[in-house]
Design a protein that fits this description.
Elements (H helix, E strand, L loop, with lengths): L1 E5 L5 E5 L2 E2 L6 H16 L4 E5 L5 H9 L4 E6 L2 H10 L1 H4 L3 E4 L3 H4 L3 H7 L3 E5 L1 H6 L1 H11 L4 H10 L1 H4 L4 H13 L6 H7 L8 H12 L2
Parallel strand pairs: 4-5, 4-7, 5-6
Antiparallel strand pairs: 1-2, 2-3
Helix pairs in contact: 1-2, 12-13
Length: 214
């Protein structure tokens, strides 16, 4: 259940189950700082996927700095979506706010598929991710291709990369990864790569990435 309290600046802050979803001191300034912290991550991508709507301040400040970005906000709680829609109707009209409490439904949504086809990044609103920790961890793994459904979707959307890998190896290994609760890693991709693709541009890029994460 939502509880609305005032920050030291007099601006409203939403609390969910006793946890404040924005700074109790100065939520706008904290939102500005959040944008600065994430600037390097988002500057080279077309679409930004924000995990958590919170009180909405961070999204509003993000749009001021990056009005050219396509923004998708994923929020677990419908009450928060409704509240922020009332607080910031004009600002959030420019954003794709998706309310979803079932991670498996996300990958089938047209707006998510459209985002995954472009260059995109995933950034987190920490207070929101603390409240629904496992939900947002699962979403991040899905969107970053770190779990089976995510990697299937990424390869399905990217023909230029899909041909690098042996589909039979992927089909063989994914059930084992699910059973073992493994995160999909660069090492899985290396195992799945066709031998004759090792020295292509895509193959060499994968080898470089593999060395970087050792």
């Amino acid at each position: 259940m939502l509880e609305i309290v005032n920050s030291q600046q007099g601006t409203p802050v939403v609390c969910w189950q006793g946890l404040a979803l924005a700074s109790m001191k100065n939520p706008v300034r904290a939102a500005e700082h959040w944008v600065i912290q994430n600037t390097s991550a988002v500057k080279n991508c077309d679409t930004v996927i924000i995990l958590g709507l919170g009180c909405g301040y961070h999204v509003v400040e993000f749009l001021k700095v990056f009005p050219e970005k396509s923004v998708v906000v994923l929020e677990h709680t419908k009450e928060l979506v409704d509240y922020c829609g009332r607080q910031f109707p004009m600002e959030l009209a420019a954003v794709n706010v998706i309310q979803c409490s079932n991670v498996s439904h996300l990958i089938t949504m047209a707006r998510i598929e459209a985002a995954l086809k472009k260059s995109y990044c995933v950034i987190e609103h920490v207070p929101s991710c603390v409240v629904h920790r496992q939900f947002y961890i699962d979403i991040a793994c899905l969107l970053r291709g770190r779990e089976p459904n995510g990697i299937r979707e990424h390869l399905a959307l990217r023909e230029r990369y899909r041909h690098l890998f042996n589909e039979s190896d992927i089909v063989r290994d994914l059930p084992n990864a699910v059973e073992a609760n493994e995160l999909i890693s660069i090492h899985h991709l290396d195992r799945w790569m066709k031998p004759n693709e090792k020295w292509t541009q895509g193959g060499l890029m994968l080898q470089v990435l593999k060395e970087l994460v050792k």
